[in-house]
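Researcher: Quick one. two chains, 810 residues in total.
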Amino acid sequence: MTTFRFRIDAIKQQLQRRFGQTTDLMLVPIRIGSRQGLLCYLTTMTNTTFLTETVTTPLLQAYRQGGLADADRGLDAVRELLFGGLTTRLLDDPQPLPVLLTQGYAGLLLDGEPLMLMIDVKELEKRPISEPTTQNVIKGPKEAFTESADTNMSLIRRRILNERLRFEKYVVGSQSQTPVYLAFVEGEADERVLRDIRDCLQGSSMVSLFDSGSMEQLFRSRRGLLFPTLYNSERPDSICSCLMDKRVALIVNGSPFVLVVPALFSDFFKSPEDDYQWFLLGSFIRVLRYLAFMLSLSLSALYVAATCYHQELIPTLLLTSIAAQRIGIPFPAVVEMLLMEMTFELLREAGTRMPRLVGQSISIAGALVLGEASVQAGIVSNITVIVVALTAIAGFVSPVYSFGANIRLFRYALIILGSLFGLYGVIVGFAFLVVHLTRIETFGIPYLSPLARLGGRRSH
Amino acid sequence: MLVFLLGTSIIYGTPRLVPDTWLVDLLTIVPAFLLAGQYLLLIRLGRGGNLYDMLIGAWGKSAGRLLILAYTVYFLYIASRNLRDMLELVMTALLRNTPGELVVILFVPIVAFAAVGGIAALGRLSILIVLMVMMFFLTLTFLLIFSGSVDSERLFPFLSEGFGKVAGSVFRSSLWFPYGELIVFLVFRTYLGESGTMSRTCMFSLLSSAVALTFSDLLQICTLGMENKKYSVFALLDAARLINVANFITRMDALVAFIFIFGVLLKAAVLLYAGSRGAAVLFKTEVNRFAYPLAMLIGALSLLVSRNHAEHVSEGLIHVMYWLHIPLQFIVPLATLLLLWIRTPGGARA
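Model:
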């Protein structure tokens, strides 16, 4: 049996073949004692100062002091003596070498040695922990996740000081090789859910993965079209409370949004702040959110239905004021409503994509020019503007942005149904929504779970 | 999960043939318990099978299949009648000029969509809908009280036509209309837990629905008075029209329509699911293949079932009662029960 021996020339050739002419590949010839060695790493993934301080300098010093005079003892001796505190690996096969280099390892080899030493000297530029941008609270922790999965895991671990907290690493994306970490509390999380997620991660056919949003598409069940079945948050405290609640979190490297499965309907109406306040206030705000959800979904459709078909449902006084405003408006109520809703969507989209400095001019144009002037010009009625504004404000109340974003589309369907079939259309639209909600299951758990638990008690 | 029962009966109430309908409701509970007892006994003898298994077990292959066909058609027919009820309400209360076909076309896919979801989804749906209906019902009651249109004097004269008439109405109609339809649940028997718990939920749901119905009728009589209620087509709707709180909250018809549409949705979905299950047993394929075509059938039937509303109501009260409800809800199950009893060997009976 002949054991493989690393040869400097062969490895050099192999690396140059695999990496081509990329500028960040460094192949540095060094000498340890009497022997030729090679240090290889990617400058973009490693901290060069750290590398010199912890790898090269000690080697040199050790050689000078004669500690390594007995150079025949090989690399494992070097590892024991010099790099005790670092994450190191010994390779006996050059096959995984390129992969390890891309992960931020530096490779150290001696000519003719059967083993090769890999030292983890990864250090990347990363954003410091900052305040959350999408899920703000007034009172409560102000830390948010960052793009680095290591930082995110540390943010979770320092909140749950429990030895049963587990992080499992998976690699997703055949090209991008993105690390994805599965976080859960052993013994708490449902085994079946865990198994499903593992299968899903291992069997994924994704080519690249840059944000947890794409991950969400992977897990979204076929039935859950309108409602997200994954909760996402950039707040460590909310993720930790989910972990304690027998759930599983997914941390995608490169995304500040951590996913939680399984997510239920009620999760999207909870803000971590609710628990930090007096319970009555928290519950009140939570109920308010449900109401706002209903309002943002149905108000514009109800307005269209009522003004077109069911004038008798509106109290007489209100009816006269609505009718008075609508005199001279050239469009039917539906067109008016759709027009304003679309305008608002445009404003929102423009507002988010705009450079921050120009953003203000958008809001001025929106509020003054479109709102005020269009009413005065008699293109839309005041009440339509009020209704649209109210639905828009109510739509922003959900603490999780993705929830409101999906359901917005359904509002248009409801408006059109309301304009075609009046109140009946709106009710049928709602019926569809309710049936849809009851049919969704995520990982075998009904989406409307707290309600179903009530039902479970009733049926057994 | 057995709260399905409340479905349409809350809104439609019991057939109003006699003045003291609320008393009828209360009295019906007694024979309804007997009827439910019969079904429960059937379950115990059926040993884990559902209604269709039991029918084949008791009547043999060909006669059993014929009966399954009968039940399938029966369920679909009831579903289409429910749909027609809703259609009439929508046409009278909300959309006077829209063609009924459109209303049905919009509604039917959703019923099928709900039925395809399977029994667990239907159960969740039912809980949600019952909660909703209860909430709206309570709102309605409060609003009626606040608008000062509830007057308990209207309950009198009490028993003006004697007790016999009331008792007669119990057996002639009310027993079969809301309660007899419990038979649907025999189809889902295998999904609904053990027979012990089932009997308890069954009794509980019977009781609660009786209370709800009585309450609804009382409310209607108190607001409308006996004469009005007798002639009104949708009594609850008419009652809701009387709401007027401070001249602002007026005309809550929409609320009633909401209750009604959701009730019908649930009931039709359950019946459709039972029907497609029957069809699946008959043709030995899976259930979901039938849901959408059968839903179309229900939609068409609901339009064709009668020429106008008067015919629809009279058909419901007289023909359906004697030709469909009583045989299929009482006689066939009873005969099945007896057959199963005879066929079961003496030792296994205990």
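Confidence is low (pLDDT under 50) at residues 452-460 of chain A.
Researcher: Thanks, that's what I needed.
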